[in-house]
What we know:
4-stranded antiparallel β-sheet, elongated, 5-stranded antiparallel β-sheet, alpha+beta
Amino acid sequence: MKKRFGTILIFIAILTVLTGCSINDFFDVRSAMSPPSISDEQIGVENSIRDYLGSDFKFSYIAIDDKYSSALKCNIGGLEYMMVFCETEDKLIKSHSIFFEKKGDKWVVKDDIVEGNFKIRSACIKDVNGDGLDEIVIEGARISNSKPKTYIYQIQKNGIVPVK
């Protein structure tokens, strides 16, 4: 009986550890419902977006590499870049693809691709024209008629330029 009780107690302890709850806040429902804390890097990026847009925005979670995310990181030519997708609304919904470049330990806004009345669905990095350089491919649709549209951009020193 003691062996069975000990086995059950160990099983319960393992399940408790796997829940992510600590003993101190095991019965505190609010702590289990709160989102995970974000990193200093994420706070810096969010503050940069807020300073850049100067208005309220919401992140767009789009399909990136078989998961949903609001940021696409890449390394091109030995430099780190990140594209963050968000929306603003001022009589018209505007999709922003804000392009960041890593300078030291901070992400700095380098460019912004703005498209009105457009909803971004997915983004990826791939060489679409066979020139040996990766391009950014953004796919989405017009909100008014759901007509699909694909945009292709290339990273250059001055910013992002459309590929024709």
